[in-house]
Amino acid sequence: MKLLRIPAVLISIVVLGCSSTAPAAVGPTTQPTDAPSMPTATPPAFVVVPTPVPTSEPTPVPTSAVAQMPRGKLDPAIKVTVYNEGKVWPGTTLLNDNHDAEWPRIIEVNMLGEVVWEYVISRDLWEGEPLRSMDKDVELLANGNILLGLPKRGIFEIDRSGEVVWSHLDEKISHDVDRLPNGNTLYNFGGTDTVDDAQAKEVSPDGEVVWSWHAKDHFDREPYRGIDDLGWTHNNAVERLENGNTLLSPRNFGLLVEVDPSGSVVRTMGEGLLNHAHDPELLPNGNILVANHAKPHAAIEFNPDTGEVVWQFAPTYKKGKRRFIEPLRDADRLPNGNVLITGYGVIYEVTREGEIVWQLVLTDKKTALNGWQYLGFYKAQRVSANIK
Q1: Residue 40: inside a domain, yes or no?
Q2: Share of residues in the chain with pLDDT > 90 (%)
Q3: DSSP 315-363
Q4: β-sheet bridge partners, residue 136
Q5: What is the distance between the alpha carbons of residues 373 and 101, in angstroms, rounded to a whole number?
Q6: Is residue 38 part of a domain?
Q7: 21 and 27 in contact (C-beta within 8 Å)?
Q8: Who has greater pLDDT, 376 or 290?
Q9: Rounded-to-integer distance, Cα 243 and Cα 49, Å
Q10: Which long-range contacts (CB under 8 A, 24 or more apart) does 160-164 make?
Q11: Ordered strands of the 246-250 beta sheet
């Protein structure tokens, strides 16, 4: 999931499902909601207030990230356990939170873990009970709206008031959805794909499919023919590159694929290195950053031409808590060189030296572990703050 730099002007709102009562809404967040309001003091009538004397020095303005960040409401389901203000890339973090299987939601949190915006996914979007699946994708758009991909349902663009302003229904969607610069939308399918399915589609704002890619045109051969592990390819990512090509991640094949606009395979990458890879990102230096499910699970940066791993970070964990961090689903390079990594029950920001400088965790680890296939976190996006 890509980093987006926009002003962090946020409104807190909850959109309720229409068939039941949702969790309590997050209130307006111009100030911390747990701070009691104070009555305005009125000076006695006989007090003479002196006229301020102008000075040549401006009034000091707080410049720290904490002083300038949008404030919200603490949520008992999550908490920040590590925050090194001097080493993080400041901003808010947008993610889908599935800890409550009945009421999956999208939340945006500040660096303190306060929820500054929340959208409980409406039952209207599902037309019934929510699908218990982790692989919902959320992306903040340049217009401030949220792009939401719901597996086996479709794509929805939601404004900050919770209204659906655009949608495209397609049961064959999973894992990844991106809005392209030309206004089209690129999305992935691989959750239960077969050899006859398209693993990637691009649709216009009118819903017309203007491009698609079928793995069978290139991989319906040994050793790929006959694979079936939650789908044939279980493709889990699709990204349009600056050169116009498209990067895909057919998880079950143990490699990444770059294809040109005609759909022809330009190159494959990561053979012999990748194991159930998730959400690859092509970096400016030409390397690939990806969440790799080798043992142990790790975020790795590798040279796609040589296969050399030039950086990696595997999360540490206490004995018996391994599944709380695994599986890793997402790794994003931040502008300061840090990497934002999303594990099953943990999201953390780590420096190139391996220091964790920010960490968000689910507080109810037991419930999360018991439902690890469809509860917890999937991806996260850091939204850059305008810190002066």
Answers
A1: no
A2: 64
A3: ----TT-HHHHPSP-EEEE-TTS-EEEE-SSEEEEE-TTS-EEEEEEES
A4: none
A5: 11
A6: no
A7: no
A8: 290
A9: 66
A10: 160/10, 160/11, 160/13, 160/117, 161/11, 161/13, 162/13, 162/14, 162/15, 162/119, 162/122, 164/125
A11: 235-240, 246-250, 256-259, 265-269
The 10s digit of each residue's pLDDT in 75-96 is 999 999 999 999 999 999 999 9
* Gap between the Cα atoms of 82 and 356, Å rounded: 7
Task: Let me know if residue 44 belongs to a domain.
Answer: no
Could you list the residue range(s) of the whole structural domain that residue 354 is in?
4-29+67-384
The DSSP bridge partners found for residue 299 are 291, 313
Q: Which of 195, 121, 196 is nearest to 158 (CA)?
A: 121
Choice between 23 and 260, residue whose per-residue pLDDT is larger: 260
Strand partners, 383: 4, 92
| Residue in 155, 144, 124 with CA at minimum distance from that of residue 22 | 124
Please state, in angstroms and rounded to a whole number, the distance separating the CA atoms of residues 300 and 354.
Answer: 12
| Cα–Cα nearest to 369, from 334, 301, 302, 317 | 317
CA distance 229 to 194: 11
CATH number assigned to the domain comprising residue 312: 2.120.10.30
Q: Cβ(137)–Cβ(176) under 8 Å?
A: yes
How far out from the chain centre does Cα 210 lie?
26
Task: Answer yes or no: are the C-beta atoms of 233 and 219 closer than 8 Å.
Answer: yes
The reported pLDDT for the residue numbered 67 is 74
Per residue in 231-285, pLDDT (tens digit) is 999 999 999 999 999 999 999 999 999 999 999 999 999 999 999 999 999 999 9
Domain count, the chain: 1
SS3 at position 9: coil
| Inside any domain, residue 323 | yes
Q: What is the mean pLDDT of the chain?
A: 83
